[in-house]
Amino acid sequence: MQSIGTVLPDILDSVSQVIWVVDHQGNLLYTNPAGVAVLGYGTTDELLGRSSHQTLHPYRPDGTPYPATECPMLRPAVTGVPAHGNDEWFMRRDGSFFPASWWAAPVDLPEGRGVVYSFFDATENRELERARLERDAARIRADESRAAQRRIMRSIASVRRQTARDLHDGAQQRLVGLLIGLRLTRDLLPDHAEEASELLDNAIADAQTAIDELRELAHGVYPSVLTAKGLLAAVESLAERCAVPTTVVGSYTHRLPAEVESNAYFVVAEALTNAVKHATASHIRISIECRDALCIEVADDGVGGVPPSAGRSGLTGLADRISAFDGVLVIDSPPGRGTLVRAEIPVPR
């Protein structure tokens, strides 16, 4: 009788996929060279006639016995139905194990129904899958981190707005009432009560100073103009009060989401503060444009030389603010040529 090896096409000897044929008893009748190499054997003769189950996985990687009756790869010889699996571990000649993906199909042989195996070492595939899962997990963690940052910033902006309203509607209004009461009291004093009148004048001056300071504090916490008129107006107000001459240019045609405007305003405020403190600048230019993204530039003509890392330069927090909204922060600060802080924040159309 012609052997199974001479019946099979010669092309099987050249393919990289493992091809095994086992008889109805599970003994190996044929293997191509790939089936020898993947297990670390030297020649075909070392495998032919051996039990395929005992050769591939006589026991599991944890050392527990693996009965042939439980082997899903042999089942097609009984059921006549093809089978496939990705969760098997095969044993090399040296006793080491590797993960394998396999296919098994029934084949009619002269002595009875056997099985054709095809399998490959899935180590690389598993590593690629593990790397993909790690990338996906890292991306999910990054997305969750940015979402958490945005929620925190929205919460901070909300607290700032509420605090500013509370200062305006509460303490500031009570101080205004006190100021009015003091003035009315002064007007009711007799003309000869000069000493009392002087004391009241001092109290009125102190109350007015307290109102001015409270108003300035409320503006710093969250400027009402930002809510009422938007980012550009709020930045122009910020520039008017800057200790260094500051020019604001740019325009956009629509209001942006409140959290974007708030975040952008405090980016400008922080960059402006750092320019005033550290740049020794004679002029600052702020540019605001909005197309596909909100583009903000704060440029000064100061000493420059800011380190590339914002975390080491007094610009702490800018990068975190921008990245929370999937934005990009660029700091260009050549020594002696000023500093440019550029931020781009994507905004919904």
Features of the shown structure:
single chain; 349 residues; alpha+beta; Heat Shock Protein 90; 10 helices; 44% helix; disordered N terminus
Secondary structure topology:
Elements: H1 4-7, E1 18-22, E2 28-31, H2 33-37, H3 52-56, H4 76-79, E3 83-91, E4 97-109, E5 112-121, H5 123-188, H6 194-221, H7 224-229, H8 231-240, E6 246-251, H9 258-278, E7 284-290, E8 293-300, H10 318-323, E9 328-332, E10 339-346
Parallel strand pairs: 6-7
Antiparallel strand pairs: 1-2, 1-5, 3-4, 4-5, 7-8, 8-10, 9-10
Helix pairs in contact: 5-6, 8-9
Short description:
This protein is 44% helix and 21% strand.
Q: Would you kindly provide a written description of the structure presented here, covering whatever features stand out?
A:
With 349 residues, this protein is α+β, with helices and mostly antiparallel strands. It has three domains: 4-121, Beta-Lactamase; 143-218; 226-346, Histidine kinase-like ATPase, C-terminal domain (Heat Shock Protein 90), CATH 3.30.565. The chain has ten helices and ten strands. It has helices at residues 4-7, 33-37, 52-56, 76-79, 123-188, 194-221, 224-229, 231-240, 258-278, 318-323, and strands at 18-22, 28-31, 83-91, 97-109, 112-121, 246-251, 284-290, 293-300, 328-332, 339-346. It has a five-stranded antiparallel sheet. Strands 6-7-8-10-9 form a five-stranded mixed sheet. Strand 1 and strand 2 (28-31) form a beta hairpin. It is elongated. Mean pLDDT is 81; it is low at 1-5 and 310-314.
